[in-house]
């Protein structure tokens, strides 16, 4: 039986079926999107994929873009649930532009949210996840889909939770307040649970317990992968209530014994840590190992990567130092992917930009409310003023955004120029000090650089350091050391930088379609190219092309 992806309440929105029509023609008697949604609701996933693919191909052939977008978004979601990430990206890449042009905002929400969930749970790329969650939230606002907005905010809150960022408390408060205002118990439950997770991560377990009890007022939501039991048990353990904690852990594991889900990984990791703290190392290893099996089988690294470190500590306590080193190495390889200085800087910058835009929108909203109040006395004049203010606000906002993009392009080109000068200076003196091992490493790096440029190896998709080491007749460790020493970054980061540089050249000097540019420089899909380009330059490829050609 194929396992379907399961996530807790923290990332629930991507599983909520969006039952919307994918055609505006009221005369259509059979709506393929509605049929696919019905099959998904009935749990007939394979049949849903078959119907969706057939109707998608038909829609593309007939030129019905709306039906194609509706089905493409659903296919991407289904393939994600079936662990077919390449197929997911294929359909998302194919329909994203049409979805935006046709203003099919619900499909835009599905696409960005699922990519965000994948980045968060499976790829543990927090910055990319945040970028897509924010994009989905923007589309939710444009379509006045308030429920979707706050479900997406729950996904943002869980990023703050895993980073132990107190900003998650504010997000939890927004979610809970929305539920209170609307009388929606689901959002009160989600907000209370997020408050509990945040307080637990910050060491405020008494506060966390209070919010867990508040969430317990709505037991109908604490089922399956949305259960709060693993968190409840961990909080009880932190408060020294060991007997209660162990009972809750065992009850949760028994309830989910036959289901490989994220909640089971969380429970296994929590109970393993509890047992290790009591010196019950053999039992701890058994539960940790079960958690890792599920983590690695379904790539749930967001929930399970910390188990590697916990196992290393347990094996150290047991005197099994070889095993301890093995798991510690795996932990740090994943941790380096999660907590990276450049990613951290870019992540914080993204949050600041979003919060700044959010505050500006809030100020604009308040200004609009004030103007509407003045309409009571001077209706005609005030209406004219409101219209004028709206136009000016849009113009100024666009001008401000364009100026920001333009400045980023200027700064990036200046950076490129400085980098070129430094490389020329390095080439001029590279013959100095080339004796011994350092000289050998330098020569290897020069060979690699020349080979990459002359043979355009950066354009090879899925290129790895092992591939290049084999081509150059050396080994992976030696080549990695050469890149780290003379480029100052990992091989993958250096390769990505080279691809982005070449894409900048193509964007600036040609009219090649962006999708073709991504393919030419070695990216397997358009989404990955967009994300990496924004990380490197600060602007989307299309905007970079416009500003670069307009200024340079």
Describe the structure.
This protein is an all-alpha fold. It contains 25 helices and no strands. It has helices at residues 32-41, 45-62, 65-81, 85-101, 105-122, 126-142, 146-162, 167-182, 185-201, 205-215, 229-238, 242-255, 262-277, 281-298, 301-317, 321-338, 341-374, 379-429, 436-454, 465-472, 476-487, 491-509, 514-520, 526-537, 541-551. Helix 17 packs antiparallel against helix 18. The longest helix is centred in the last third of the chain and has 51 residues, at 379-429. It is globular. The termini are far apart. The model is unreliable at 1-21, 23-29, 338-347, 379-386 and 429-435 (pLDDT under 50).
Give the SSE map.
Blueprint: H1 32-41, H2 45-62, H3 65-81, H4 85-101, H5 105-122, H6 126-142, H7 146-162, H8 167-182, H9 185-201, H10 205-215, H11 229-238, H12 242-255, H13 262-277, H14 281-298, H15 301-317, H16 321-338, H17 341-374, H18 379-429, H19 436-454, H20 465-472, H21 476-487, H22 491-509, H23 514-520, H24 526-537, H25 541-551
């Amino acid at each position: 039986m194929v396992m379907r992806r399961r996530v807790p309440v923290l990332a629930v929105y991507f599983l909520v079926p969006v039952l919307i029509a994918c055609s505006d023609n009221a005369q259509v008697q059979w709506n393929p999107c509605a049929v696919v949604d019905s099959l998904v609701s009935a749990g007939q996933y394979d049949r849903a994929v078959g119907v969706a693919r057939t109707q998608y191909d038909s829609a593309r052939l007939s030129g019905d873009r709306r039906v194609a977008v509706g089905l493409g978004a659903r296919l991407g979601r289904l393939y994600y649930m079936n662990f077919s990430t390449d197929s997911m990206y294929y359909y998302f890449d194919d329909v994203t532009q049409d979805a935006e042009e046709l203003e099919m905002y619900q499909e835009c929400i599905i696409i960005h949210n699922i990519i965000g969930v994948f980045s968060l749970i499976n790829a543990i790329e927090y910055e990319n996840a945040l970028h897509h969650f924010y994009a989905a939230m923007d589309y939710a606002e444009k379509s006045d889909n308030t429920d979707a907005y706050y479900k997406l905010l729950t996904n943002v809150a869980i990023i703050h939770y895993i980073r132990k960022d107190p900003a998650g408390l504010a997000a939890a408060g927004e979610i809970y307040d929305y539920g209170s205002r609307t009388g929606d118990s689901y959002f009160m439950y989600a907000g209370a649970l997020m408050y509990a997770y945040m307080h637990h991560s910050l060491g405020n377990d008494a506060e966390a317990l209070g919010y867990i009890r508040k969430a317990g007022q709505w037991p109908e939501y604490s089922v399956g992968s949305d259960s709060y039991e693993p968190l409840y048990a961990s909080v009880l353990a932190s408060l020294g209530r060991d007997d209660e904690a162990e009972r809750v852990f065992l009850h949760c594991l028994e309830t989910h014994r036959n289901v490989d889900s994220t909640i089971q990984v969380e429970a296994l990791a929590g109970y393993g840590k509890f047992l290790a703290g009591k010196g019950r190392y053999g039992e701890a290893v058994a539960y940790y190992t079960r958690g890792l099996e599920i983590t690695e089988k379904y790539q749930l690294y967001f929930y399970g990567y910390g188990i590697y470190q916990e196992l290393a500590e347990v094996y150290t306590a047991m005197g099994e130092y070889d095993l301890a080193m093995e798991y510690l190495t795996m932990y740090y390889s994943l941790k380096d992917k999660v907590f990276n200085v450049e990613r951290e800087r870019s992540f914080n910058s993204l949050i600041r930009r979003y919060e700044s835009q959010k505050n500006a929108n809030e100020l604009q909203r308040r200004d609009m409310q004030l103007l509407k109040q003045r309409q009571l006395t001077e209706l005609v004049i005030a209406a004219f003023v409101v219209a004028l203010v709206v136009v000016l606000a849009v113009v100024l906002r666009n001008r401000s955004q364009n100026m920001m993009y333009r400045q980023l392009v200027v700064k990036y080109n200046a950076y490129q120029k400085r980098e070129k000068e430094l490389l020329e200076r390095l080439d001029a003196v590279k013959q100095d000090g080339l004796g011994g091992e350092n000289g050998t490493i330098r020569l290897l790096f020069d060979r690699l650089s020349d080979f990459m440029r002359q043979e355009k190896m950066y354009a090879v998709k899925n290129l790895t350091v092992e591939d290049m080491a084999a081509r150059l007749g050396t080994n992976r460790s030696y080549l990695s050391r050469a890149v780290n020493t003379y480029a100052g970054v990992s091989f993958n980061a250096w390769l990505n930088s080279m691809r982005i540089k070449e894409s900048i050249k193509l964007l600036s000097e040609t009219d090649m379609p962006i999708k073709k540019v991504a393919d030419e420089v070695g990216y397997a899909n358009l989404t990955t190219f967009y994300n990496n380009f924004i990380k490197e330059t600060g602007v989307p490829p299309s905007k970079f092309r416009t500003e670069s050609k307009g200024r340079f």
